[in-house]
Design a protein that fits this description.
Layout (H helix, E strand, L loop, with lengths): L8 E5 L8 E7 L4 E4 L3 E16 L2 E6 L3 E4 L5 E5 L5 E9 H12 L12 E2 L2 H16 L3 H19 L13 H13 L7 H7 L4 H12 L3 H18 L4 H7 L5 H12 L3 H4 L8
Antiparallel strand pairs: 1-2, 2-8, 3-7, 4-5, 4-6, 4-7, 4-8, 6-9
Helix pairs in contact: 1-3, 2-3, 4-7, 5-6
């Protein structure tokens, strides 16, 4: 059976974690973009189909799984390269944001990043960018979303920028790690962004995440979720409803709690308590 044609259905949205950035989740069937340019870095993930476009004097085709990367101010076009169109997720990342991420990686000021490769084919990078885009759009966990975005952008810069930032040497710093743990544990119901956690200890988000992950073995959001699960166990043992326990420990809802509980303990909260599935 032939794939159904995609509709012309773009959804533009923003995230408070990158207030000056625009994001798009879209599918296009027969739309054709006139020559135009953006004042931001355009980074896309092709989820299905393929897009063709002219950019810097060359014709390109970005197929499923690839990552088109367009530098700011460069004129380009866009149209379907298949009979049924294409579906993609796009970041329009401000120049200052990308520049600051590069500088934080190297811990020094760098020239404005430039990407020579118009279509990147790197499954690992594709997965990281897609994870970040989905996490930002879901808006469930700002700590996890900002970490995913930082990870995706630093991976892109570290592998494909013309001048690749070399991460500065990471020194042990038990005092800062303990301070971050205290901040993460202070109020598990409080939404917390990675930039807030990093600012509390005087580090960039990139270096705060690197330091914390190296010293604890878990990324900040994963460590916080593990603490939530640990603190949830007494309530479950006492027979409290799993929904109440989930909300008390800062999980968004029961399904969010159950998903993380299963990953950690291999069973749902209800089965862990020996009460069957009624509380799941």
């Amino acid at each position: 059976m032939a794939p159904r044609p995609f509709r012309n259905l773009p959804v533009y949205w923003r995230s408070p974690l990158v207030p000056d950035a625009d994001m798009v989740t879209a599918e296009y069937g027969d739309h054709t973009f006139a020559p135009h340019w953006h004042d931001a870095y355009t980074v896309a993930v092709i989820e299905a189909g393929a897009e063709r476009y002219d950019y810097r004097g060359t014709h390109h085709v970005a197929d499923t799984g690839s990552v088109p990367v367009l530098n700011p101010g460069e004129i380009h076009t866009g149209a379907s390269a298949t009979a049924f169109g294409w579906r993609y997720r796009v970041f329009y990342l401000p120049v200052d944001f990308v520049h600051s991420v590069a500088a934080s990686m190297a811990d020094r000021r760098l020239p404005m990043p430039w990407f020579a490769e118009a279509v990147v084919r790197d499954p690992d990078l594709t997965a990281r960018l897609r994870l970040a885009h989905c996490a930002l759009q879901d808006g469930i966990d700002p700590l996890a979303a900002e970490l995913a975005l930082t990870d995706a952008v630093t991976t892109l810069l570290g592998r494909y920028a013309a001048e690749r930032p070399t991460p500065a040497k990471l020194h042990r710093d038990a005092v800062r790690v303990e301070a971050m743990k205290a901040r993460l544990a202070a109020d598990l119901t409080e939404p917390l962004a990675l930039s807030e956690l990093a600012a509390a200890v005087g580090l960039s988000p990139f270096h705060a995440a690197r330091l914390f992950t190296r010293e604890t073995g878990l990324a900040p959001h994963a460590w916080r979720n593990q603490l939530r699960l640990t603190r949830a166990l007494p309530g479950l043992r006492a027979g409290l409803p799993a929904t109440d326990v989930a909300m008390e420990q800062g999980f968004t809802d029961l399904s969010h709690f159950t998903r993380h509980f299963r990953k950690a303990f291999g069973v749902s909260p209800g089965r862990w308590c020996g009460r069957g599935v009624a509380a799941d």
